[in-house]
Automatic annotation (TrEMBL):
Any one annotated GO CC term: membrane
Similarity remark: Belongs to the WrbA family.
UniProt cross-references to PROSITE patterns, sorted A to Z: FLAVODOXIN_LIKE (PS50902)
Cofactor(s) for this UniProt protein: FMN
Protein name stated in the entry: NAD(P)H dehydrogenase (quinone)
Protein EC: 1.6.5.2
Phylogenetic placement of the source organism: Eukaryota, Viridiplantae, Streptophyta, Embryophyta, Tracheophyta
Length: 203
């Protein structure tokens, strides 16, 4: 039976979504792994999103909390809001109380990826503060550390991401994920999928 990895994200302007697609490509490289993309529900109205200049949502399916237990592992993605996960993703996690009560997600591995507006905007604080969500569910946090190789030590170019997971900088919205940021995202998908497969095989 395939190891199911759910890549669950929220993206306002598409930066997190681009990372998500690359993460899926990486996970799909692992034999015996079935990766699937999901979006969490939007909490803002179409009118507000329009005023913000946000593009129309993609056709990636919207997930509900009751679908989470189907997965063997997760890679959660979200933009930062003042150093923490966006409210849309937090609202989704707030709706998982019944899963917490039944410990349906306990023992499942999970990683994170993120987007921030600037270099000091939360590339580490965003995942660090989000770990509480995993802890209360009893999930196993899987960081990438420095397993992505030399690109993790790039000093000449602006680079998103950290040992916590893949990342990018959105800036004013015009900046898009760089080739290096996408490479790290691909690695994260492959890396976590491999760990999920090993864990499932040892059940």
């Amino acid at each position: 039976m395939a190891t199911k990895v759910y890549i669950v994200y929220y993206s306002t302007y598409g930066h997190v979504e681009k990372l998500a697609h690359e993460i899926k490509k990486g996970a799909d490289c692992v034999e015996g792994v079935e990766a699937k993309l999901w979006q969490v529900p939007e909490t803002l109205s179409a009118e507000i999103l329009g005023k913000m200049g946000a593009p129309q949502k993609s056709d990636v399916p919207i997930i509900t909390p009751h679908e989470l237990p189907e997965a063997d592992a997760f890679i959660f993605g979200f933009p930062t809001r003042f150093g923490m996960m966006a409210a849309q993703f937090k609202a989704f996690m707030d709706a998982t109380g019944s899963l917490w009560g039944a410990q349906k997600l306990a023992g499942k591995p999970a990683g994170m990826f993120f987007s921030t507006g600037s270099q000091g905007g939360g590339q580490e604080t965003t995942p660090l503060t989000a770990i509480t969500q995993l802890v209360h569910h009893g999930m196993i946090f899987v960081p990438i550390g420095y397993t992505a190789g030399a690109g993790m030590f790039e000093m000449e170019k602006v680079k998103g991401g950290s040992p916590y997971g893949a990342g990018t900088f959105a800036g004013d919205g015009s900046r898009q994920p760089t080739e290096l940021e996408l490479q790290i995202a691909f690695h994260q998908g492959k890396y976590i999928a491999g760990i999920a497969k090993k864990l499932k095989g040892s059940d």
